[in-house]
Amino acid sequence: MLISGICGSLRNESWNKILLKIFLDKISQNSDFKTDIIDVSKFPLYNADIEAKGLPESVLSAKDQVANSNLIIFASPSYNSSISGVMKNIVDWISRPPKVIEGKNTLVIGATPGMSGTLLGYTHLNHILLSLGMNVLNQPRLLVAKIDKQMEPNGKIISEELSKLFDNSVNQLIKKLNN
Ligand SMILES: Cc1cc2nc3c(=O)[nH]c(=O)nc-3n(C[C@H](O)[C@H](O)[C@H](O)COP(=O)(O)O)c2cc1C
């Protein structure tokens, strides 16, 4: 089984990238599942004129990886009480024909240094993914507020609470996928 991650932040030191990488690493260390991160950094802004000339190479390659995955984990930052424009752009490109995401398992995770967390963006993205026919997992909920107080930029977890949340999320997901 292959689990692939997609991050909705292009920032080099993105907390969501770090969250996604640690989560995927812990999953592969604790199961037989293989994990991978899909490179979406070269996606252009969606434009039907570009699409009319054929899907860009970066999009084709990401869609291939999505098609070959059993579960897609989206790590989505919280922007203005929703998802980032980058995240929406990624989903828009991937949703274009040929269809690769219909019926596919998906899970949304997210992190913010903000106090209010990423729940609003999480529900917005789940709604979009559901409407695309994806099988949205509503557990585990790896949604992290005040990430900068709980993790160092090098990925070292410094809060007991976050450490437990990671362990529970990893165990819950592996159990669910093995059932
Ligand atoms: C345009 C914009 C809007 C933002 N809106 C929110 C928000 O509504 N809630 C929140 O918690 N953080 C918000 N932030 C802060 C981001 O969560 C923060 O920059 C975070 O580090 C972005 O994710 P990343 O580290 O993965 O790049 C916003 C940041 C930007 C640039």
Attribute tags:
alpha/beta; binds flavin mononucleotide; 179 residues; single chain; Rossmann fold
Question: In a few lines, what is going on in this structure?
Answer:
The chain has 179 residues and is an alpha/beta fold. 44% of the residues lie in helices and 15% in strands.
Structural write-up:
The chain is of the alpha/beta class. It has one domain (2-178): Flavodoxin domain (Rossmann fold, 3-Layer(aba) Sandwich). It has helices spanning 15-29, 48-52, 57-67, 85-95, 119-131, 147-150, 160-178, and strands at residues 2-7, 34-37, 71-75, 105-111, 135-136, 143-144. Strands 1, 2, 3, 4, 5 and 6 form a six-stranded parallel β-sheet that branches. The chain is globular and about 50 Å long. The protein starts with a strand and ends with a helix. The model has no long low-confidence stretch (mean pLDDT 97). The structure holds flavin mononucleotide. Residues 9, 11, 14-16, 77-81, 112-114, 116 line the site of flavin mononucleotide. Flavin mononucleotide binds at residues 9, 11, 14-16, 77-81, 112-114, 116.
Number of DSSP strands? 6
The third-level CATH topology is Rossmann fold
Name every ligand kind in the structure: flavin mononucleotide
Low-confidence stretches: none
Percent helix among the residues? 40-55%
Q: How would you spell out the order of helices and strands?
A: EHEHHEHEHEEHH
Distance between the termini: 13 Å
Return the CATH class. Alpha Beta
CATH superfamily: Flavodoxin domain
Rg measurement, Å: 16 Å
Assigned CATH architecture: 3-Layer(aba) Sandwich
Q: Helical region count? A: 7
